[in-house]
């Protein structure tokens, strides 16, 4: 199958679904991955998920990944060798790992027939994965080979403030339009704080306005709305259309509440990928290949034109554009036979070169130079 050939429905059905977990530090990504791992093991022990850990700085993960970046890149050694800080070390380690990501894809492809889900656990420093070249390469490479869904993990207890909620929504919006993949908002830690308030703010603009007005610091000393209050009001209006095309689910990584509903949404997003995102990816891939082919043809045409102009300008030089004949080559070989031209004098002098590798007759006398 060529790279530009669209995948058939049967071929796509055999491919596992990739879940890329992204979220702020402390949102509970690794715990959420462990909960997904436990749920999929209990649902079908014969088809466990295939897990990739892309965080080189994590000391311990509550699951056993099939592919671990820590087995390939030593995070502390990278910091030492390149004189980097923690974030620079993580970014450089991820860049080094990405140079061999084609081998990772080969390993995943070999297991694609025996698994239904592939899970990627990304670094806690969200900007390192979402805004770096290596993160984009990994996401694009995975999405071009498998149905891919992005799960954005949100710390629900910390989102009760309208300003923090708006910050998370803006970040989710930017990641959605950067990855251009099916997107799921996962409100984690619902055992600590239920997520119904966030769903209400997303669906009801007036409810968010009321929560924003009741929040402390929304008005200045003169009773007028503050600049931040007015800014969040405006942004909530802008994001109102964004909320309509977004799927959200509340889960608890500790208790497992909502995990089943999350995988139901994942299946819906898989269908969206096949219907909407896959044709765009195939079209973009075909456009890139056509662009490369056009560049090659244009380069070849310009070369042929330059060659024709050169021949028309210098017709005599055309006769020199030929290969040497075999007779000329043989003549050159005869002239280059340096083996017979090596002469050894009867009276050698100190420092004289003597070829001791040539076969000589037994009666041939050689006067070897004496040292000193």
User: Considering DSSP H and I runs of 4 or more, what fraction of the residues is helical?
Assistant: 40-55%
Number of domains: 1
Low-pLDDT regions: 1-12, 339-345
Termini separation comes to 76 Å
> How does the overall form come out from the CA principal axes?
extended
* Reported CATH architecture: 3-Layer(aba) Sandwich
- The CATH topology, please? Rossmann fold
Radius of gyration: 34 Å
Per DSSP, what share of the residues sits in E-state strands of 2 or more residues?
Answer: 5-15%
What's the main sheet like? 7 strands, parallel
* Global structural class: alpha/beta
Query: How do the strands of the widest beta sheet line up side by side?
Result: 3-2-4-1-5-6-7
- H/I helix tally: 14
| Chain-averaged pLDDT | 82
For the secondary structure, the number of strands is 7
Element string (H = helix, E = strand): HEHEEHHHEHHEHEHHHHEHH
CATH class: Alpha Beta
Quick one: CATH superfamily? P-loop containing nucleotide triphosphate hydrolases
Family: Belongs to the GPN-loop GTPase family.
GO molecular function, one term: GTPase activity
Region (Disordered): 306-372
InterPro entries: Gpn, Gpn1/Npa3/XAB1, P-loop_NTPase
């Amino acid at each position: 199958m060529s790279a530009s050939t669209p995948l058939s429905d049967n071929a796509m059905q055999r491919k596992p679904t990739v879940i890329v977990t992204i979220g702020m530090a402390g949102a509970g990504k690794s715990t959420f991955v462990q909960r997904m791992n436990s749920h999929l093991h209990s649902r079908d022990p014969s088809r466990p998920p295939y897990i990739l850990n892309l965080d080189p700085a994590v000391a311990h993960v509550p699951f056993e990944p099939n592919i671990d970046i820590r087995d390939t890149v030593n995070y502390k050694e990278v910091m030492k060798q390149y004189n980097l800080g923690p974030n620079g070390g993580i970014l450089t380690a991820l860049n080094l790992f990405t140079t061999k990501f084609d081998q990772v894809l080969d390993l995943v492809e070999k297991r694609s027939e025996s698994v239904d889900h592939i899970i990627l656990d990304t670094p806690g420093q969200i900007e390192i994965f979402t805004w770096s070249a290596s993160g984009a390469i990994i996401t694009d490479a995975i999405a071009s080979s498998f149905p891919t869904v992005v799960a954005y993990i949100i710390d629900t207890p910390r989102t009760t403030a309208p300003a923090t909620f708006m910050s998370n929504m803006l970040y989710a919006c930017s990641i959605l339009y950067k990855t251009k993949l099916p997107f799921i908002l996962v409100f984690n830690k619902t055992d600590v704080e239920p997520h119904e308030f966030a769903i209400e703010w997303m669906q009801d603009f007036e409810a968010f306005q009321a929560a924003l007005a009741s929040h402390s610091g929304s008005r200045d000393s003169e009773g007028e709305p503050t600049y931040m209050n007015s800014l969040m009001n405006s942004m909530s209006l802008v994001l109102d259309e964004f909320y309509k095309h977004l799927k959200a689910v509340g889960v608890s990584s500790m208790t497992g509440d909502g995990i089943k509903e999350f995988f139901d949404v994942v299946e819906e997003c898989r269908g969206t990928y096949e219907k909407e995102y896959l044709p765009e990816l195939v079209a973009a891939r075909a456009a890139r290949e056509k662009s490369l082919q056009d560049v090659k043809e244009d380069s070849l045409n310009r070369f042929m034109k330059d060659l024709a102009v050169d021949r028309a300008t210098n017709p005599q030089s055309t006769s020199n554009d030929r290969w040497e004949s075999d007779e000329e080559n043989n003549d050159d070989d005869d002239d280059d036979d340096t083996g017979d031209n090596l002469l050894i004098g009867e009276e050698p002098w100190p420092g004289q070169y003597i070829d001791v590798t040539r076969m000589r007759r037994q009666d041939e006398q050689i006067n070897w130079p004496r040292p000193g």
